[in-house]
Amino acid sequence: MRTPVFELHIQPMFRATDREHMAFAFDLWDYDAVVSQADDILARLESDMPPVAGGGPWPDEWVELFRRWKDGDRKRLELGTADYAFTRTATAVTVTATGTFPAAGYKGWLQLTDVSETAKTYVLYFEPPDTPVIGTPETFTAKERYRPADTRSVFVRDAAGVQQLH
């Protein structure tokens, strides 16, 4: 059974309305806030939250997934680092990240996280293995492609900060 990861499994279960209702106390999309409140969040999920007027209680499977994450290592993704390239051809625009993972067993990808009329922002995520893997860190190439008619500015957020590619 896969280990739950905050950004992949836990954060998406908190709906925008849940986040808005709890904003007075803490941010349900913030890893550190959810870790610090995990026991209280689970107690409320098991009893009466979210209320019917706010979308209704979570399915039992969601509550169990949150419990597994809370009782486990509270795994989360890491921001990676890479060298980036931006290429425009007649058929596609390609954003490429190349580099080496920090250790053996890591996986990584570029994920589109924010889109506006003028810009697109990607995040370079690394997922560490559940248990350490012996071996040499692998090199990687992650690519994202989209239509050449899209002329928005492109940004990538990684462990070094935010970089504008185009």
Q: What does this entry look like structurally?
A:
With 166 residues, the chain is α+β, with helices and mostly antiparallel strands. It has two domains: 6-71, no CATH class; 78-164. The protein is built from five helices and eight strands. Strands 1, 4, 5, 7 and 8 form a five-stranded mixed beta sheet that branches. A hairpin with a 2-residue loop joins β7 and β8 (161-164). α4 (38-47) packs antiparallel against α5. The longest helix has 12 residues, at 60-71. The mean pLDDT is 92.
- The best one-word shape is globular
Strand residue content: 25-35%
**SSE series:** HHHHHEEEEEEEE
Q: What distance separates the N and C termini?
A: 40 Å
Coarse structural class: alpha+beta
Biggest beta-sheet profile = 5 strands, mixed
Radius of gyration: 19 Å
Annotation field: number of helices: 5
Task: Estimate the mean pLDDT confidence.
Answer: 92
- Contiguous uncertain segments of 5+ residues: none
Residue share in helix? 10-25%
Q: How many discrete domains? A: 2
- The number of E-state strands comes to 8
In short:
With 166 residues, the chain is of the alpha+beta class.
Notable features of this structure?
31% strand; 166 residues; single chain; 8 strands; 2 domains; alpha+beta; 5-stranded mixed sheet
Task: Give the helix/strand layout.
Blueprint lengths: L5 H5 L5 H7 L8 H6 L1 H10 L12 H12 L6 E2 L3 E6 L4 E8 L6 E9 L3 E9 L11 E8 L6 E6 L2 E4 L2
Parallel strand pairs: 5-7
Antiparallel strand pairs: 1-5, 2-3, 3-6, 4-5, 7-8
Helix pairs in contact: 4-5
